[in-house]
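Name: DNA-binding IclR family transcriptional regulator
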Amino acid sequence: MASDDQEGPGVDPKNVVVSVLKACQLMESFTRERPNLTLADLTAATGMNKTTVHRLAATLIQAGWLTRGEGATYRLTMRPFRVGAVALAELSLRSEAVPFLRGLADRFGDTAYLMIPGPDGAVCVDIFQGNNPVRVNTVGVGTVLPYHTAAGPVVMLAFSAELRERWLARTLDQYTSHTLVDAATLEERLEKIARDGYAISEEDYLYGVGAVAAPVFDAQGELAATLSLGGVNDGFRGSRLLEIIEGVTSSARELSSRLGH
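Structure predicted for DNA-binding IclR family transcriptional regulator:
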C-alpha cells in the first residue's frame, strides 16, 4: 500500500499499529470498477491470508465502514465517503503542493512553479526559489504565460484537448527564435509530451531559461495544474536534466495522488 504521507519514514515504528495499516490496505481494494468484493477477491488483492482478511472485514463491518453485499460480497458503506467529503472540502491545491515545490527548489536550487489553466494562458499561483544565485525573476505569482511557450503551459496544451483546440485556432506569437508558432509542428511536440508525460523548455519563452514540467491531475482525472522547475538553461543538461525530469514527474504524480487521482 502506497502511503501519501511524505514524512512516513520519520515515524517511530513502535507507534505504528500494523493491523490498522492492513485494514487501510483492505479498504483500498475497493474501486469504482469493483465495488463488491468476495473474501477470495480481498485475499488476492491484499496478499493477506483468509483468516486475517475475514477478521479485518468483520471489524470494519462492526465499525460501520463495510457492509455485506449480495452473493457473499463486501462493499463500502457511506461512512468513508462522508470522511472523504470533509477532506475534499478542505483540500487546497496550493497547500498540498507546498512540500513538493519546496522539495524541488531545495533539491536542485532552481525555482519551482505551480501553474493552473486560465482563460488567457497558464497562471502561476505559487513559486519556491532555491539557493541558486542566478534566478528567473520574470515569472512570479499572478504571471500569465501563453500556452504555446515554456514547460508548464505546453504541458497543459498536451493534456487538455479543449485548451489545445482553442489555443491552436489563434495566431501564435513569437517570443524568442525558439518559440514554435507553426500549429502542425507544435501539435507534433504536444503529442510527444503526452507520450512522455513531461515537457522540456529550452529558451522558447525567455532567452537563457530552461524548464521541465509535468501534469497534475485531480480526482476526476482532469488536468488541474502543472509542477515545473525553471532556471538557467545551461543547468538543464546531461545527467542533471535526467535527475530534474525524475524529480518533477515523481512530484507531480504524488501531488496528483494527494488530490485523489
